[in-house]
Specification:
The complex is a heterodimer of chains A (105) and B (320). Chain A has four helices and four strands; from the N terminus they run E-E-E-H-H-E-H-H. In chain A, helix 3 packs across helix 4. In chain B, strand 2 and strand 3 form a beta hairpin. Chain B is elongated and about 90 Å long. The chains are: A alpha+beta (105), B alpha+beta (320).
Chain lengths: 105, 320
């Protein structure tokens, strides 16, 4: 059976950010886990607010949280190690993009 | 539907211990990780091994699967003609583990859904479980023009719904999505209420679509910046020029090529990339195209150029 639905989408952005609880739900976690990601530096908040309910997250944050969740689930790594792996992963992607830009890949 | 052999997906035999299942999974998860794998079917293999680990890594599911595999072996089902026998899972109760990601099971096979999808929901219903539906994740590839200008696109998803009797079922759902203008690669588009159905009368989850930009014949995307190769003549490079350049939003801008521009020089058109708090730029990479010396006039012009620039030695640094 095919169902046809017309729906309006919103882009997750600075003007329409995700709350900590929404980010947590999107990755199948709870807000306490999001707080841990902020503590280890996987997520960066641009505010001095300490209350998680006042934090706001972007698409890049959602991407980082999903990647951290997968590392935890697939390899059982701790969040400190996940932070390092994600930094290295992003550096590899950046270098690959530079190589591609110079026609070397 | 094909009966899936989860043991061969992980490359282990039926006597493998929990620890062996975990080790086999991690080894393959590293092999097929999208950042390191060069295998063309890495994404599909990753889905298969995730599905196999979900079943074999859970005592109840593994026991039920083993019992079913025995029944199938005795019944001699022809390949590709598998249907789970009624009541196959009696005596087993399934649940989703706390470490599972959002709606992971939505990416799993029809075989998995037919075995465990309904059983998991029944388990949740028995426990009077109430929760908003899980958010679902998918990717959408759109053209650069659609990303910059916005568009309406149809996408078809395999989605779980609940029928009038409360039984979950999978169906193909076509969504017509209005993509807002200015989305950039890696950004998520959120469709409220289009995720997995809620449990115990709670609302459904949301659907997140990760934006991917299809390859473009003129522009290359790098985060929020765009790159385009701009061919120019040697005369334009040497003397400087005003040249017309198409922009990805459909307009044309005039760009100044500076005098003595070298091949590969990068010109930046500020803010002409993807919009955002820090908007991206459009970079033009100069590519000096030599006119062919295929006429007397052209050959003469090259000879005159050689005479006029006789002191120019591009290979001087080679010492020959």
């Amino acid at each position: 059976m095919v169902n046809f639905t017309v729906t309006t989408a919103t882009a997750v952005s600075a003007s329409q950010p995700l709350a900590a609880s929404e980010l947590a739900h999107a990755v199948g976690a709870d807000t306490a886990w999001v707080v841990q990601l902020v503590e280890v530096g996987i997520l960066r908040i641009e505010t001095t607010e300490t209350q998680p309910e006042r934090w706001q997250f972007s698409s890049a944050d959602l991407q980082h949280a999903l990647e951290a969740r997968r590392l935890e689930r697939d390899f059982g790594v701790g969040l400190d190690a996940a932070a390092l792996i994600l930094d290295l992963q992003h550096e590899v992607r950046r270098l690959k993009a530079v190589l591609q830009a110079r026609g070397l890949r | 539907m094909e009966f899936k052999d989860y043991y061969s997906a992980l490359g282990i035999d039926r006597t493998a211990s929990d620890d062996e299942v975990r080790k086999a999974y991690r080894k393959l998860a590293r092999k097929y990780h999208p950042d390191v794998s060069t295998e063309p079917d890495a994404e599909k293999r990753m889905r298969d091994i995730n599905e196999a680990k979900d079943v074999l890594g859970d005592k109840e599911k593994r026991a039920a699967y083993d019992a079913l595999a025995d029944r199938v072996a005795r019944g001699g089902h022809p390949e590709g003609d598998f249907q789970p026998p009624p009541g196959w899972d009696e005596g087993f109760e399934f649940h989703r583990g706390p470490r599972q990601g959002p709606a992971d099971h939505a990416d799993f096979s029809e075989f998995f859904s037919s075995l465990f999808g309904e059983a998991e929901r029944r388990g949740a219903a028995r426990q009077n479980f109430r929760a908003r539906g899980e958010d679902h994740h998918a990717a959408i590839e759109i053209t650069l023009e659609d990303a910059l200008n916005g568009a309406e696109r149809e996408i078809t998803l395999r989605a779980q719904t609940v029928d009038a009797q409360g039984h979950p079922q999978w169906e193909n759902r076509t969504l017509s999505v209005k993509i807002p203008p200015g989305v950039h690669p890696g950004q998520f588009i959120r469709l409220a209420g289009q995720g997995m159905p809620g449990h115990g009368g709670e609302p459904p989850g949301d659907l997140y679509l990760e934006v991917r930009i299809a390859p473009h014949k003129l522009y290359r995307v790098e985060e929020r910046d765009l790159y385009m190769t701009l061919p120019i003549t040697p005369t334009e490079a040497a003397l400087g020029a005003q040249v017309q350049v198409p922009t990805p939003t459909g307009g044309v801008v005039e760009v100044t090529v500076p005098r003595n521009a070298r091949n590969g020089l990068k010109l930046r058109l500020k803010g002409r990339g993807f919009a955002g708090k820090t908007p991206g730029d459009l970079y033009l990479l100069l590519d000096i195209a030599l006119p062919p010396a295929d006429s007397d006039d052209a050959r003469k012009a090259y000879e005159q150029l050689a005479q006029a620039t006789a002191s120019f030695h591009p290979r001087q640094h080679l010492g020959v």
